[in-house]
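so my prof wants the structure for this chain in the tokens format not the other one, which i didnt know existed until like an hour ago. anyway here's the sequence
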Amino acid sequence: MNLSLKKAIFAFAVASASSLFGGNEINPDAIELSPLPKPEKMQIDSDRPVSLDEVSLYVSKTSEAKDGIEWLSTHIKEWYGDLAPKVLPSSSALKNLPEGEEAYAICTDKNGVKISANSLKGVRWAAYSLRLMATAKRGTFKTVGYQVPTMEISDKPLLEFRGVHLCIIDTIRITQIERAIRLAAMMKFNYVVLEPWGMYKSSRNPWWSWHNATLDKETIRRLVAIGKDLGVTLIPQINMFGHATCARGVSQKHFVLDFYPEYEPLFEPGGWNWCLTNSETQRILRELIAEMHEDFGNPPFFHIGCDEAQPPTCAECRKVPYGKLVCKHITDIAEFIKSRGAQTMMWHDMLLEKDDPRWKEFVKYGSKETATLAETLPRDVVICDWQYSYGNMNEVRKDWPTIKYFSDKGFPVCAAPWRNFNTMGPMARYVSKVGGFGMLLTTWNHLRGSDWRNMYVYGSAAAWGTDPVKVAPLYDTHFALAMRYVGLDMKVTDRRDTGLYDYEVSPGWWPLW
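here's what i got, hopefully its the right format
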């Protein structure tokens, strides 16, 4: 038995003042669900299964009741085929349905399987919970039907914005990105920021990509449609300041200048930053924003990056106070995005002066001038505060003064953790405490292996407001199950599109003969 998980579940029981897992205390690992429900109320007994023959659904938002029935009926049919349970409308809500647009309740007992939700969003989260806990009926060669535990769940998220930041690097296949989006939905994230590292095919500026770019308009619209159906909004990102290479800094690659040196005037010498004094740079960036925003279906947010920039070496940019130039550039870009009906999102680090003693233990790369942007930037810009607990990735903090700093100034703030898994829960609770906006989980080049698993498991639990299901010593069945369902939904046939790795053994592990 997983002792860490048992302790986490016991903590849930104390918090909710109810008996968790009914008569199943001896084997809490029987619950294959991540994130676990936020225990408004949660009683689950896997040792008393209920046949999944019918699902009764109530949606309190009458304008979405029909959509909820259609969505659940369609997807249950996709998931279970000829063995799919019938979906029937209900005229009354379960008594334990919480308030909130994303809230839902589930009750399964001898009287059947019942779901209540306040909106289509809640219907989706309830359906994913039910699916992950359903199992094939026992004692047969092939599946003849499905069953779910006897349970009573009353559930809703801690944070309104629960996002995952994904990078499309040249070695990442679109199938992997689709898997990551579908898995994000299964684990109740509702936003995905998609950052193409030179992999976006622009029709207006075809030079602005690697030659093997795979993110064309048709692909984007397909991914956006998948996300919308599953409850995930896709948000585009273009770096508007530093990281203009669309490549990792350690690689020393540049997706434009390595092939098209004639476009050098658009960048600072060397290519890491955009040249901000060049009017052609400003024109191109606005063209790219408009094109990508349109391709993504004009979502309510657009991420502009703006982290880890360097001082200018361009003769024109060095003629003016660079901090003021940066401030005007970012403010004008934010206003342009606002004119398109969207909010700007950006990384925080250039807004904190690196020599300010208040931020000694925290990420900060700004100068005195760029830090003034925190005073002048429009207050609807979402600040994504990436704090990675440098020096100790296992660190567990209780407060984050940088998050409070931006929140006190009136900005919506997203906590943005990475591999500092133990910090994610306390960080999410702190964001909620100070009135922050949400959490944006970053994955960067770790969209594979145990890091990917831990980011999703710890991050989804943190954003939902529960403790994570602890990593099992041999085989993490709850995460493997979610990935398996995603693969089945995609009808994958390539073994690379299953599990955590492309192959069973990394080529780097083979001896050199």
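also thought this was worth mentioning. Confidence is low (pLDDT under 50) at residues 5-27, 508-513.
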